[in-house]
Design a protein that fits this description.
2 copies of one chain form a homodimer.
Chain A (H helix, E strand, L loop, with lengths): L17 E4 L15 H14 L3 E5 L5 H11 L9 E7 L11 H8 L4 E7 L2 H8 L3 H17 L3 E7 L1 H21 L4 E6 L10 H10 L3 E6 L6 H10 L4 E4 L13 H11 L7 H4 L2 H11 L17 E2 L5 H6 L17 E2 L7 H11 L5 H16 L8 H12 L10 E11 L12 E9 L2 E9 L2 H12 L11 E9 L10 E8 L4 E8 L2 H27 L1
Parallel strand pairs in A: 1-2, 1-8, 2-3, 3-4, 4-5, 5-6, 6-7, 7-8, 9-10
Antiparallel strand pairs in A: 11-12, 12-13, 14-15, 15-16
């Protein structure tokens, strides 16, 4: 994990435009994304490291998890370097004073400097979904904003369904946003909640509101028409100074505007300095890490940060690429921490290896860097990835360069057999007995046999290994797996595709990630586990070396 | 597969805008896409059924596969209903008359009515990559166009790198496109080859050329800045009458403009009648089928055609959705052949269950809905999730309400044992032999035993099951797993935490998701697999029921 202090300090305030990250709220509406409080803290820290201005943490009071997140943040556990944390919630309920609204009180109790309130701006929704008189909806908006500002909060107002509202009932939609702005909302955010706004809808409308409203104007687009990023850019050109989006465009249905794409477009193509260049250089890494935390992958075709975003397949490009990369690339991949990939031919990137090796305290010369790079390429082509598996990369580097000769490996895996029974029916599978493993490893020239029973094949292997090496490395006692992720690659080939296992291990203080790839999920798991143990056993020694 | 003849005839010519499909050329530049001639014929027929105006088949003469494709097409094997087939190629070589250029001759030999020629329009490329005098490049363009039109061909001209060329060397780029148009190109296509054009670059530039050029103007965008669709739309608003794109946005790096999104945006939101409505209703099916042919999957978040494009997660929406679907949807999902999906989660209320049941064609009364909800909540507390597992929810619903009594289950799982060996070392694990499974299921009261070998325990189980039920349900032959995801819950407990497996299955047209949860990853996988098989076996019957 890179030390954030090694990077440039972030400007405050940002260059006339605020990036507002709603991954932790809108992003989690993506099917299959379910973040623990711990996950939420980790995602927030990553977005903070990138340098966004605001991080929306969720809806305190709406569910226990979000309430717990804000409590831990308020207790100093989040420790954001730069970003301002925002609590999200709804305007007061109908027919109830703002002061007595329990949901607004929960927002206050979240102890953030900024609160983002959402309210209805489409008359149809006020009539049919909310079922309150339109005047009351206006009062709900204004009262809620006034109440929170009177308590010293800075308030943003998300005008839900604003683009649909304007299209079908323009006067009322404008009344709502005007009410919010006049009541003291610092920023009024025009939301395309259903995601169907088209680029021709944006510029004039946003420009008009930038002119008319006493507040600043923000944007919140969804991608149902495939235009969320472009709509955001067009709105910013028209004068909006706040833009909401999510990491990798996570979000309900087709997703939210991809904040990473917006950032890179504006900074590299519009000349806005939203984050220091050395932060932008971490974009790819942050994209992939946040995706992993959300149990997703960054799509390989994602602009800027995707695995293939700077891939060149056509052989005829290669020489031109070497001579003048700007001929075939819209930006420099290094500016966003990505890299050019050529399907044929050797390429630059050796300097990356040298830098990374230096960071890990391993000396590599030019020839070794070339060998490492070739090995990385060979393995990446077979499905390995080192982006989210630093500890495995570290081992690869040491093995290929000879800094970890085979003779110094703490153990050598010899054989295992795992057996699993089940299938009787869902409830009674436990009666089938645990998974069993028998494992042979070689330690200091001696063959050691271990047996393990566990809840599954990986657990059984883990126990068998510990049984086999029992007592040899006491530091292993403190180590346990904190996460285990499996992904099938070349997915359309089904179960006989290659399986990639990522294992996160911890001793309670440090955390390290390892990777294994194999057609067999058990073998892939074992490869990742082996690296995790080896790292656990050797890292104390390496840390001393690296510090010298 | 739907019979194309059952659909409306296609208008000729289309409504002032031509959709030009380049899936078979630019789309195949996507890593991992490699189409046989047969595949290419099938993709072309699908795009034709949708109703695009032009289908670019590839580059005859550049490789034997494309040459064979055009030969078979010319022999009548392709039999397009509506679209015009286009052959793609380069302008003549430097210093050689067009009449004597073998590549141009190969284009002529492809026997298409239309030829699309690509030429350089960025001076920098002419100087550095091509290395010919700029005047010669102009002559290469004009001569080639004139030569082909003199032979009775209709010619389109793809102005490569036009947007970069204009930005850095505008006068020359304009000279090139003018030369092509004046030489007789019917359409001059402005290509954003490197994909970095921003929406603010498009309207004025395209509008100016629409005014200035004697030809019509086309567009060809790539998605490196995340704006390919919006840029296409903006260019069309500015007067372009031809737009190039690919199925599902397939293409090199970040992909090409997604022709499906452009079509739906223009037809449903701009009122252009590009294809008959009953063709547009096949968009989702065609998207998924073409993706399969290309060994890809349609991303679940793809606008209009993705699996989650019309999914609704939040419980509070459900009652409003039933009352007025246009409140929460930018278009009617049926218009593009997709469907609304309610995502069931612990946040859902009873009304969500009732609606979801109605969607699935299962009658549930209030009391049953309460029971189902209680069961969903109980299971979610134990780690199950139905958000991304529609098919498992469907089965849960039917089982809990008695609509699928135990006696009607197609099979009952009895027992399995799986054995995996490995660990020798990374490279030689294959010599340990495959994973082996033995599985017993009960079908119609009879115990059936099956054996399977596979690359891993899940693969082995899958094969053992198919072996056990061999031939009983032929529809299973078309079913395969397209994705497999594993997540460890309560991750801090390490490998003995609960494991959640999500399995995506497909028969090439439909896609369904199932879930299994168990401490043992193999058992969790088996539970998800069982549901996937049960769904595959019973769904035909249920679909009929739902239609009644």
């Amino acid at each position: 994990m890179t030390d954030a202090t090694a990077h440039s300090p972030l400007p405050a305030p940002a260059a006339g435009l605020d990036l507002y990250d709603t991954t932790l709220r809108d992003g989690t509406q993506r099917e299959g994304v379910s973040l623990s409080v711990e996950d939420k803290l980790r995602v927030a820290r990553r977005m903070d490291e990138l340098g966004v201005a605001y991080i929306e943490g969720g809806w305190p009071g709406a569910n226990p998890k979000d309430t717990a997140f804000f409590a831990r943040a308020a207790d100093g556990e989040l420790a954001l370097e730069h970003a301002t944390l925002v609590a999200f919630g709804m305007t007061r309920g109908a027919g109830r004073p703002a002061e007595a609204d329990p949901l607004l009180q929960a927002l206050v109790d979240a102890r953030t400097e900024v609160i983002c309130l959402v309210g209805k701006s489409w008359g149809y929704h006020v009539d049919e979904a909310l079922g309150v008189p339109r005047a009351e909806n206006l009062a709900m908006v204004a009262d809620s904003v006034r109440h929170l500002t009177s308590l010293g909060k800075r308030v943003f107002f998300d005008a839900e369904h604003f683009f649909d509202g304007v299209a079908r009932d323009g006067a009322y939609a404008r009344e709502v946003v005007t009410a919010a702005a006049e009541a003291g909302a610092e920023c009024v955010v025009l939301c395309d909640t259903n995601g169907g706004a088209m680029p021709w809808d944006v510029a004039e409308l946003v420009g008009g509101l930038v002119h008319d409203l006493p507040s600043s104007v923000g944007l919140h687009f969804h991608d149902d028409g495939g235009c969320a990023v472009a709509n955001s850019l067009l709105g910013i050109e028209a004068g909006a100074t706040h833009v909401q989006g999510t990491a990798n465009g996570l979000g309900e249905r087709c997703g939210n505007a991809n904040l990473f794409t917006i950032l890179a477009d504006l900074q590299l193509k519009r000349g806005l300095r939203l984050v220091p260049p050395d932060r932008l250089e971490r974009l790819t890494e942050i994209s992939h890490t946040v995706a992993e935390l959300c149990n997703q992958t960054t799509p390989s075709v994602a602009p800027y940060v995707g695995h293939t975003a700077f891939s060149h397949k056509a052989g005829l490009h290669a020489s031109a690429l070497a001579k003048a990369p700007d001929m075939y690339q819209h930006v420099e991949p290094e500016d966003v921490g990505n890299r050019q990939r050529l399907v044929v031919s050797e390429l630059a990137g050796r300097s990356n290896i040298v830098l990374k090796a230096r960071e890990l305290g391993v000396a590599v010369d030019d020839e070794q860097a070339r060998t490492v790079l070739a090995e990385v390429k060979r393995r990446e082509a077979a499905g390995w990835t080192y982006e989210a598996a630093d500890a495995s990369f570290d081992l690869l580097l040491r093995r290929v360069t000879g800094s970890l000769p085979a003779a110094d490996e703490p153990f050598r895996s010899r054989h295992y057999r795992v057996s699993v029974a089940g299938g009787a029916d869902e409830a009674s599978a436990a009666t089938e007995g645990p998974a069993e493993a028998i494992l042979a490893v070689e330690v200091a020239g001696q063959r050691r046999l271990g047996a393990g029973e566990g809840n599954g094949p990986v657990d059984a292997l883990d126990r068998a290994f510990r049984n086999a090496v029992n007592g040899t490395w006491p530091q292993l006692d403190r180590v346990h797996l904190s996460d285990y992720k499996v992904r099938v690659l070349e997915a359309s080939a089904g179960t006989d595709a290659v399986t990639r296992v990522l294992v996160t291990s911890t001793d309670g203080v440090d955390v390290w990630d390892t990777v294994g790839v194999h057609p067999n999920v058990v073998e892939a798991s074992w490869l990742a586990l082996s690296d995790a143990y080896t790292h656990a056993i050797l890292r104390v020694h390496w840390q001393q070396t690296a510090e010298v």
